[in-house]
Amino acid sequence: MDPQMNGIPGQEEPEKRRAGAYGQDHGSADQEVCAVSSGENIIQIDHLTKIFRDKNRIVTAVDDVTFTVKRGEIFGLLGPNGAGKSTLIRILTTLLAPTSGTACVDTYDIAKDPEQIRSIIGVCPQNSTLDVELTAYDNLEFYGKLVNVSEDVLDTRIQKLLAMVGLSDRAQMPVGTFSGGMKRKLEIVRAFIHHPLILFLDEPTIGLDPESRREVWQQITRLNDEKTTIILTTHYMDEAEKLCNRIAFVDKGKLVSLDTVDNLKQLIPSGDIIEIGCDVITDALVDAISAIPKVTSAEAKKQKIVIRAKNGSLVMPGIFATFEQLAVPMRSISIRSPSLEDVFIYLTGRKLDDGGNETAQPQAQG
Amino acid sequence: MIRGAVAIFKRDFKKFLGNPFVLVFTLLMPIMYLVIFGNAMGGTITHIPIGVVQEGPPYTETGLYVNGVEELRYFSQADNPRLFDVTVYTDEEIAKRALGDALISGVVVFPSEISKDNMVRLYVDSSDYMTPTLIESGVRGALARLGAGNTIMVNKIYGDIKYIQFFGVGVIVMAIFMTTMMGGGIALIKDREMGIHEGYLVTPVKRSSIILGMISSGTVRAFLAGLIIFVVGALITGVIIRSMEDFLLVLIVIFIASVGVTSLMVSIASRFNNQQEYASTTAFFNLILFMTSGAFYPTIGMPDWLRWITVINPEWYSVHALRSIILRGQGLSVIAPDLIALLIFSAVAILLGITTYRRTLE
Question: Are A280 and A108 in contact (CB under 8 A)?
């Protein structure tokens, strides 16, 4: 059994799917593994572990993680705060050396060729590193020089990027006068100034208002259209769901699951969630509904009865009939597919915004 | 209202006590001022090196000369140690050359047997503060004790140099230190806090380029500050630069000092994550180095333990070199030891700066 599956109720399905996502097996730490990996996969991570030690405690921020990222996709690392997403990004962007394991970025090994990797990646860290005293133009120009954009294309590229994020008229204003959303967009295009193969975005929309978030999302999609692989970390479900081709769930340093959004949702065996509001909920009602074929569970929650069923729309007539039989009036009905958050809770027993709450015990919810 | 005030009081006080480093330094500062400033400024100047010589020919020693040398050798004011360290020269020209090279602070020339006016001539290094006056009164006192009625002719070899001119040279060095330590260091720590340095690390820019860029920008800033203060100071204090060569020498000294101080700043700033701690430490450094630089007051008047600091104080060498060039018009031959000391300091500082800054990048 894969160590990453520890603590999760035995499920064969995700196991199989994840094995498929790996593509090929590269368990052996071959010296030349990076050179031959330049096909479909742009990033290969192999049993990567990072342990931080200080006086008081030892923290395993990344715990034996193995996965690959495909060329040209938007790849999401999703997990609560403190799950190890940023540490993983910092290792892949050569800011940190792993304690053990290997990782390849394009054809380069993070341990051997950090300088080559730095020239093909763009990084937008979680905390802004824009110089607030410089103008938007100067920030881009400065960064462009650091990443070796040649002088003759630099100016046109800066103008193009500023136009892309709608900041052309503010080009000569200090970044300190910008709103949070404008700064974020500027920082994202800054990371793109040398047209990197891979763009790392660490929590790109943290702390932004809904309008700005939407604009940042559009921006990310637009950059992906230019054949750039994008890796983003987030703890927002809607963000991951909207943007990412594939999502890796990370929790407590471990890779919990990795797949497309649709496939991840299939992981929940209980299926859709139907919520029916009614004033009085009797045990008889709950029992009667549980007895309907294809309903996996039914439970009373405050003024609602929460029903889970494999194929929600097909069981609705049966549920209606039961309500009529028992003469219980319905107040509201909602039916929804499980969200990514439901999947995460199902897999880890914790909510995504629980933060790094280590006392939470994994438990299966059905 | 009271509750809010108490809450704010508690918060501020907790932060004050929670930072023992700053606490210690804020308390240490006034004490250091007392000890260093008090000792540097209030010390009694003794053991001033002077030369004595009898004019000639003929070279037969007169009674006045023999007694005069003895008297000067043991002359002291009140209960203080001896005022002079006397060196006897046999040739007036050699003595004057020693004075010109700043090996001694004054030359007393006794008249020969056949002198008509019987005048005692006194040559003093007027580029120094306090010592010319002390030498003059010392020589007068010694002659008075001998009962010799000779007139004394005082010759200030660099003309009348006012205190503002003496001090003005020190201010150039102070400008280099201040702009670098205060301006440059704080900006560097701020950049690091903002993650700008970490941002560099994900770009292909080489680590050596980062350090080179930082040290060179800091050096140019310090150099410009030194140059501006030099020019403005010269206008305010009315100092005249005698030749192009002197001007270039001044620029060289300012430049070497700027490189060294900037590298030292990079090194110190790399060790602190906290602006407050950095500011306390550099204020402390500034105090010690500036006080013992001889910019305010001749280091000869300082107690021995304080004078030892001048040996390793780059500011002392800078002030000494600049004063030699600007006030005395001395050339490379005199300031060569200062330049070598400054070069050693700069080389050590650059190495220190590179290694400590590199460590912050790991």
Answer: no
